[in-house]
């Protein structure tokens, strides 16, 4: 490599370097000798070849022309400035000019490509900070820019805007230090830059921005450095370019940016391209380890075993050569080393099943690359696939490799013709052209209507997986292109959302959104169909059979494992979300209006959909299209109108709104006198109903917050206002006439018949309601509502009559009286139902419930007292399970008896951080489990400090605490940053809402504060966004052993981590107790720890309950337990 490595981005190799004479500055006649260096992005010159920092850099993109002039000189002409260099000879001049001209030309091609394909998502965007600073030794103020992991110096704002600068400083070697009131130093191993800002506060801001750049540089380097630890990984596997910072994670190769572009072109079914620096999330420890075992060395041995020298790539190969080579290599397998079983499918598959039980990853790579079927049958039903075999054998890395290659299309046995092979990525048969109206692409969701004037008419051609748009149909060069492989989502806003009747939106991987419009809905539909066909892979094409409002790919987690993120294809049609998951062969449908839970976790990053029996986590990998999905799914899951079938539906087709009300009355209103007869307060009733109508699923009716009469009135109002009535307009008369039938048998069978004629949702609702009213009248001694009274109230409500027609009441009375026969209720079922209700009435515990939730089906490992194989317990975690319930469950299983003052608690232990966090007893376990990293686990153990904490809190007045602690900050991402800085004394104030940090208040410093700023906290955090762990890792050399590790998640989803240290253990307990108290609304320990009954599989309870009970599953079971104790005790731990 030429030149010092730190001065150019590692991925841009130097094209040419040498000594040149630069023309004299104004007022001088002496040419200056300069070391000049050209890479594909910049032309720079330095005082000498030893210098780290340039005197000037000129972006190649700003060069408009290079031309020769007299005396072996040449000119580099930019927009408004010309640089003249003098060479030693004509030959040298020619070389320089050629190199420059070629770089300029390539830059243009790349710019065109990246504009169209957005291949370089991280082009320098908006700087983190920019402004003027004085630099010691320089007369005029400089314009300084902090962007990403770099600090760039420019002469002035004008030059910054032109892109011509002095030098750029890579902050991975940088360090910033406060030096004086307005000054600070940026220190690097090569030079110290001493800056002065306008004011002290501005200096602080500069310091912060530069520290941010250091953190950025360190965290982005982390993965790359680990991967580069192996020498072969330091050169691109394909062309040999230095510092490759991209990788193909399925092929297990490290590649350069230019090769990565071509790998992407091959499509994810051949190569899954990820960045070492930007895609931090994918780099799990397993994957990194896998790259140490396979990586470029093994990969080249296999894939490039037979490359003829004429076809080999080098760092400067053209794009065309790269494409040819990579296609031959990975899609056709032209250069691979052939396995001895090549061509013998059965033997390949058998050998694969053997190889995956060993540590021989290269053998697995060779077998897969030579055609072994990744999902072949192993012959063992207990571990049917190679992946399962590897899991059984405990071969972690084999598993990782197999998982990354689940969808890889390896070169096929029969040689594929050139034409055919394109079909595997996109379908070139899809071609379409015509005029579309288009707006400029945007990086944010559209907030407002786009008027017709904002669209421009473009001739659009879809062909070979590229949608190109041209100025007009005669134009030869497109204005831009969107590659189908880059499309992640296609959405169709409702008609007339923008200035055109029909519009559609295309979202790309690089977070851009393109809006197209058309007059004709038919033509628009045709375009949508063609574009969809071009970007949806064949295995998900099923999704295109029906119309959709939104279509695309998303990351998700589901099933028993939370560790692995998979990619699925989703289509939203009405209230159905149809999905093709990675491992399932056919489309599955989620009825969004029937979800048990729909929630957003982690500040809009994860969408949780709980369906009966399964939980699906959809993750927002990209912000832009995910925001669209979020809104669309939420909307689709809400009620769409006032009729019964348009409501959110619960189990067995009962609208959630009905279910919530009945549930609440059953829990809280059965003993209330005059229930359903008494009216609630109009305004409150209205509010309850409005909330339920908006999103019944998220409404939790709570005793003390809603009066039973308000809820009962809301239910009546809802039923009365149903547009078609509960019994439907067409059948209403038939029901009323039946009430007049004298013969009882005839009457009952007529009711049964009519019931069968109702739409399913109406039928289910009638049954649920009558079942409920049947229960209400069982308690008529207390509530005074016998069947007759209920009929008086509900007759007119359900039949929407004015109360004059006595027959309406008669129908209701008949249905309650003959409830068992009309609805064919099983005697046993009824008995159990009555017992349950009696139990509720008896055991009614004041409200703590949070609605009925089931179906989280994750199994997690929890340890008792310490992490060890023998203390391990596998627990199924329902969505509603709290930390206390989990604790009880573990103790129960291990037959641990709880003694008085044993504060058994569930802890989240982070091994890497050497810190742990006691969970509050009300915390839900599932979301915590979801956020646990691989270094963390859950342990149930006694919380020894709890008693001291409780005593402290009991003696304490108020929920605030002030005092000194030692503070240390790591500004980088959680776990990735290298330790920087040290502990300093700071004054903290904690109150009910936030934690404030003040700079030392005890003593003065040389840089004393102005009185104006001394009252302002230096930092402030909302206390609820902090996670506080006990302990600080030793590597940070905490000044005392009583420390806290604090994780703060910012609004931008960044995790910041910092540390606090107290002087004594008592102080630590007091701070922690106060945090715990404030974060959890005033209680730190339950006043009466209740035993929790072990979860029982759904089927065991079967149809016990007609009426959904309020509260969690566990609470429901607890309420049933008294009567069905045999059922529960028969249950053995799974
Ligand atoms: Zn390369």
Explain what the structure shows:
- The protein has 1134 residues and is an alpha+beta fold.
- It is built from 32 helices and 43 strands.
- The strands form six sheets. Strands 18, 19, 20, 21, 22, 23, 24, 25, 26, 27, 28, 29, 30 and 31 form a 14-stranded antiparallel β-sheet that branches. A seven-stranded antiparallel β-sheet has the order 4-3-2-1-7-6-5, covered by helices on one side.
- Helix 5 packs across helix 11 and helix 28 packs across helix 29 (1065-1079).
- The longest helix has 29 residues, at 200-228.
- It is globular, with a radius of gyration of 35 Å.
- 40% of the residues are buried.
- The chain binds zinc ion (ZN).
- Zinc ion binds at residues 236, 238-239, 241, 255-256, 258-259.
Please supply descriptive tags for the structure shown above:
globular; 43 strands; binds zinc ion; 32 helices; alpha+beta; 14-stranded antiparallel β-sheet; single chain; 1134 residues; 7-stranded antiparallel β-sheet; disordered N terminus
Q: Topology of this structure?
A:
Blueprint: E1 14-22, E2 32-39, E3 42-46, E4 56-59, E5 63-69, E6 73-78, E7 82-86, H1 90-117, E8 129-135, E9 142-147, E10 150-154, H2 157-162, E11 167-170, E12 175-178, E13 183-187, E14 192-196, H3 200-228, E15 246-248, E16 253-255, H4 257-266, E17 273-275, H5 285-293, H6 295-303, H7 319-331, H8 345-355, H9 361-369, H10 386-392, H11 396-404, H12 418-421, E18 432-438, E19 456-463, E20 466-470, E21 480-483, E22 487-491, E23 502-508, E24 513-518, H13 521-535, E25 550-558, E26 566-573, E27 576-580, E28 588-591, E29 597-601, E30 606-611, E31 614-619, H14 623-637, H15 656-668, H16 682-695, H17 708-720, H18 732-738, H19 744-757, H20 760-778, H21 780-783, H22 787-799, H23 806-817, H24 819-822, H25 827-843, E32 858-864, E33 872-877, H26 883-893, E34 904-910, E35 915-918, H27 925-931, E36 936-942, H28 946-955, E37 961-970, E38 984-990, E39 994-999, E40 1019-1022, E41 1026-1030, E42 1042-1049, E43 1055-1062, H29 1065-1079, H30 1098-1101, H31 1113-1121, H32 1125-1129
Parallel strand pairs: 32-36
Antiparallel strand pairs: 1-2, 1-7, 2-3, 3-4, 5-6, 6-7, 8-9, 8-14, 9-10, 10-11, 12-13, 13-14, 15-16, 15-17, 18-19, 18-24, 19-20, 20-21, 22-23, 22-25, 23-24, 25-26, 25-31, 26-27, 27-28, 29-30, 30-31, 32-33, 34-35, 34-36, 37-38, 37-43, 38-39, 39-40, 41-42, 42-43
Bound molecules: zinc ion (ZN).
Zinc ion binds next to helix 4.
């Amino acid at each position: 490599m030429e030149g010092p490595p730190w001065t150019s981005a590692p991925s841009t190799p130097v094209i040419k370097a040498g000594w040149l004479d630069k023309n004299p500055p104004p007022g001088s006649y002496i040419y200056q000798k300069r070391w000049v260096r050209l890479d594909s992005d910049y032309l720079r010159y330095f005082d000498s070849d030893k210098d780290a920092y340039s005197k000037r850099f000129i972006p190649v993109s700003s060069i408009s022309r290079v031309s020769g002039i007299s005396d072996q000189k040449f000119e580099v002409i930019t927009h408004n400035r010309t640089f003249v260099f003098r060479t030693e000879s004509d030959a040298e001049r020619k070389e320089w000019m050629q190199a420059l001209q070629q770089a300029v030309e390539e830059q243009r091609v790349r710019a065109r490509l990246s504009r169209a394909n957005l291949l370089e998502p991280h082009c320098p965007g908006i700087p983190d900070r920019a402004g003027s600073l004085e630099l010691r030794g320089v007369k005029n103020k400089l314009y300084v820019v902090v962007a990403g992991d770099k600090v760039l110096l420019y002469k002035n704002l004008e030059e910054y805007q032109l892109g011509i600068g002095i030098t750029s400083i890579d902050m991975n070697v940088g360090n910033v230090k406060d030096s004086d009131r307005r000054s600070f130093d940026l220190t690097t191993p090569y030079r110290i830059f001493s800056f002065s800002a306008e004011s002290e506060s501005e200096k602080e801001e500069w310091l912060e921005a530069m520290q941010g750049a250091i953190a950025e540089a360190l965290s982005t380097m982390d993965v790359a450095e680990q991967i580069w630890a192996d020498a072969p990984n330091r050169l691109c596997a394909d062309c040999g370019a230095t510092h490759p910072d991209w990788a193909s994670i399925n092929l297990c190769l490290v590649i350069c940016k230019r090769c990565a572009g071509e790998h992407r072109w091959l499509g994810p079914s051949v190569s899954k391209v990820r960045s070492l620096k930007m895609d931090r999330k994918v780099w799990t420890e397993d994957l990194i380890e896998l790259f140490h075992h396979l990586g470029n060395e093994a990969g080249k041995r296999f894939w490039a075993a037979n490359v003829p020298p004429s076809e080999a790539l080098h760092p400067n190969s053209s794009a065309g050569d790269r494409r040819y080579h990579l296609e031959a290599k990975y899609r056709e397998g032209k250069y691979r080393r052939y396995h001895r079983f090549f061509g013998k499918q059965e033997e390949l598959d058998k050998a694969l099943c053997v190889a995956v039980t060993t540590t021989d990853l290269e053998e697995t790579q060779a077998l897969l690359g030579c055609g072994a079927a990744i999902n072949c049958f192993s012959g063992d039903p207990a571990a049917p696939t190679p992946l399962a075999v590897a899991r059984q054998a405990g071969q972690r890395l084999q598993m990782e490799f197999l998982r990354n290659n689940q969808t890889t299309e390896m070169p096929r046995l029969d040689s594929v013709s050139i034409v055919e092979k394109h079909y595997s990525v996109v379908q070139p048969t899809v071609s379409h052209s015509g005029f579309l109206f288009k707006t400029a692409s945007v990086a944010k969701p559209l907030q407002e209507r786009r008027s017709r004037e904002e669209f421009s008419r473009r001739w659009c051609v879809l062909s070979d997986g590229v949608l190109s748009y041209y100025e007009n149909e005669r134009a030869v060069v497109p204005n831009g292109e969107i590659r189908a492989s880059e499309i992640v989502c296609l959405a169709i806003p409702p008609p007339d959302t923008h200035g055109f009747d029909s519009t559609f939106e295309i979202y790309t991987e690089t977070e851009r959104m393109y809006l197209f419009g058309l007059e004709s809905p038919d033509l628009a539909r045709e375009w949508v169909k063609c574009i969809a066909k071009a970007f949806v892979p064949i295995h998900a094409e099923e999704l295109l059979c029906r119309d959709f409002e939104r279509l695309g790919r998303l990351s998700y987690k589901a099933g028993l494992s939370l560790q692995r993120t998979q990619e699925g294809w989703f289509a939203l049609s009405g209230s159905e979300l149809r999905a093709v998951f990675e491992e399932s062969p056919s489309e599955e449908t989620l009825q969004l209006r029937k979800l048990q839970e729909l929630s957003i976790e982690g500040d809009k990053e994860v969408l949780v959909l709980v369906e009966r029996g399964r939980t699906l986590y959809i993750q927002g990998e990209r912000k832009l299209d995910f925001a669209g999905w979020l809104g669309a799914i939420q909307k689709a899951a809400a009620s769409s109108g006032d009729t019964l079938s348009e409501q959110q539906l619960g189990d067995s087709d009962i609208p959630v709104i009905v279910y919530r009300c009945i549930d609440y009355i059953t829990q809280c209103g059965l003993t209330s006198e005059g229930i359903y007869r008494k009216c609630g307060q109009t305004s409150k009733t209205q509010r309850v109903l409005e909330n339920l109508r908006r999103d019944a699923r998220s409404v939790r009716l709570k005793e003390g917050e809603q009066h039973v009469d308000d809820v009962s009135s809301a239910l009546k109002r809802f039923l009365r206002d149903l547009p078609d009535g509960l019994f439907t307009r067409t059948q209403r008369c038939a029901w009323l006439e039946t009430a007049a039938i004298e013969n009882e048998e005839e009457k009952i069978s007529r009711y049964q018949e009519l019931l069968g004629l109702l739409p399913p949702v109406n039928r289910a609702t009638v049954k649920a309601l009558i079942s409920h009213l049947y229960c209400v009248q069982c308690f008529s001694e207390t509530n005074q509502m016998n069947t007759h009274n209920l009929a008086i109230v509900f007759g007119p409500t359900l039949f929407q009559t004015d109360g004059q027609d006595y027959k309406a009441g008669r129908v209701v009375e008949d249905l309650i009286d003959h409830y068992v026969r009309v609805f064919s209720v099983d005697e046993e079922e009824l008995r159990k139902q009555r017992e349950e209700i009696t139990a509720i009435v008896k055991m009614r515990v004041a409200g703590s419930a949070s609605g009925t939730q089931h179906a989280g089906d994750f199994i997690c490992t929890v340890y008792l007292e310490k992490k060890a194989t023998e203390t391990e317990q596998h627990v199924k975690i329902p969505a509603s399970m709290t930390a206390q319930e989990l604790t009880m469950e573990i103790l129960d299983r291990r037959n641990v008896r709880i003694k008085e003052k044993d504060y058994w608690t569930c802890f989240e232990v982070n091994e890497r951080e050497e810190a742990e966090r006691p969970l509050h007893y009300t915390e839900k376990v599932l979301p915590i489990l979801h956020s646990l990293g691989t270094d963390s686990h859950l342990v149930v153990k006694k919380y020894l400090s709890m008693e001291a904490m409780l005593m402290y809190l009991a003696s304490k007045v108020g929920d605030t605490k002030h005092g000194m602690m030692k503070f240390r900050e790591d500004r980088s991402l959680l776990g990735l940053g290298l330790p920087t800085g040290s502990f300093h004394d700071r004054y903290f104030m904690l109150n009910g809402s936030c934690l404030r940090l003040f700079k030392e208040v005890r003593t003065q410093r040389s840089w004393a504060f102005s009185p104006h700023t001394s009252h302002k906290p230096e930092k402030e955090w909302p206390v609820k966004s902090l996670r506080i762990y006990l302990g600080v890792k030793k590597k940070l050399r905490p000044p005392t052993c009583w420390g806290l590790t604090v994780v703060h998640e910012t609004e931008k989803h960044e995790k910041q981590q910092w540390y606090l240290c107290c002087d004594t253990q008592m102080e630590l307990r007091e701070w922690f107790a106060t945090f715990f108290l404030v974060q959890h609304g005033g209680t730190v320990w339950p006043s009466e720890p209740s035993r929790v009954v072990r979860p029982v599989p759904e089927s065991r309870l079967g149809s016990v309950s007609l009426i959904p009970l309020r509260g969690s599953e566990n609470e429901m079971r607890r309420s049933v337990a008294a009567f069905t104790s045999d059922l529960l005790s028969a249950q053995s731990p799974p």
